[in-house]
TrEMBL record:
Residues 83-388 form the Amidohydrolase-related domain. 4-imidazolone-5-propanoate binds at residues 100, 158, 185, 257, 333. Zn(2+) binds at residues 91, 93, 254, 328. This is Imidazolonepropionase. It catalyses: 4-imidazolone-5-propanoate + H2O = N-formimidoyl-L-glutamate. InterPro entries: Amidohydro-rel, HutI, Metal-dep_hydrolase_composite, Metal_Hydrolase. Its cofactor is Zn(2+); Fe(3+). NCBIfam families: hutI (TIGR01224). The keyword Transport does not apply. Its EC number is 3.5.2.7.
Amino acid sequence: MRTLITNIGELVTNTPDAVSDNASSAGLGARVPDDGTARLGIRHNAAVLLDGDRVAWVGDAASARPHAGDDDLEVVDAAGRAVIPGFVDSHTHLVFGGDRSAEFASRMAGRPYEAGGILSTVAATRAATDDELRTRLAGFVAELHAQGTTTFEIKTGYGLTVNDEQRLARLAREVTDDVTFLGAHVVPPEFDNGMGSDGDPDDYVSLVCGAMLDACAPHVRWVDAFCERGAFSPEQTRRVLEAGAARGLGVRVHGNQLGHGDGVRLAIELGAASVDHCTYLSDDDVPALAASDTVCTLLPGVEFSTKQPYPDARRLVDAGVIVALASDCNPGSSFTSSMPFCIAVATRDMGLTPAEALWSSTAGGAAALRRDDVGRIAPGARADVVMLRAPSHVHLAYRPGVPLVARTWVAGLSI
Ligand code: NIG
Ligand code: FE
């Protein structure tokens, strides 16, 4: 099956080197302002050919002339609308049971967000059957596709027993290649002295690094840990991440969400692909990130839903840090699956331009997952393409809350 999308008013490729006439085609004269637009590799009056699950060709609409009688080819007339790479959501927690809308409502009435809320989702997830979790997950995947997300990562972390963590890893693996083992999400009650049990949190860390990792490793690509007061100490985090890395897993870190801490430093030291949240960064964290390959993944839905201060993404980009945006879709701190929503908030409240926010939601997410097959539209890339109901990518931030995704192709298939 081949698809030719033609008459594209604005095509975002994220491959600026392949676009020579960017300045003139942007209609801005010879000089393009340094607002991040140049990295989008924008083409005007463009066309894209999808062949099977790959992008086969990108060029001018004028030179894309299908041959009569080409039965195998669907021609889609974009009628001047914008086409962008599918969003890469590099951070979600989509396998869970239960509902925490009451907790959200009480937060909006003034209560603070606390990591302990995770345990109510753990109880509901343990009580749910595989089929209940699978059905709900399928609903989220449909929601993601409808909003233009074509690649997504999913973490475990609401099971916290060997069997339940393995179950969540297996279920997540049914819908994505990028599954992350997050046994070190919080210490479950049966191991936590502070909650009246006889257990010891360090024994839980040993379980995570041993039998739980053994059970989950065959189903996952990544290991993650929540390095935060109320969750895991830097020493405990290091044990978990080093154990995962020794099993060949890539490293990711939840860090610096609820306060300043060692998450960023540890992530860089361990060569993590990404450190996520980064709501509270020190003056040392920023240059250290800039000098590293570790992507800084910001999660605007979290600050929105927990009423915490927004991190300064402008400062990070200006320092040369690779910034990704992701939804962190989960029932506690950020129950949105919408990357357009994240783009709007990051633009309005975190100092990114619309172009930078789009780059961070596509190419930035791909960098956070260390993938070069997604996050761009170029020959050989996976055919993950989104047609907007808008003439330009700027509308993603300019028209917040409006469903602007007209059509999504995932690996060449129209969803
Ligand atoms: O990424 N920070 C830790 N974990 C999730 C929150 C999970 C929850 O509240 O259920 C997060 O924000
Ligand atoms: Fe998270």
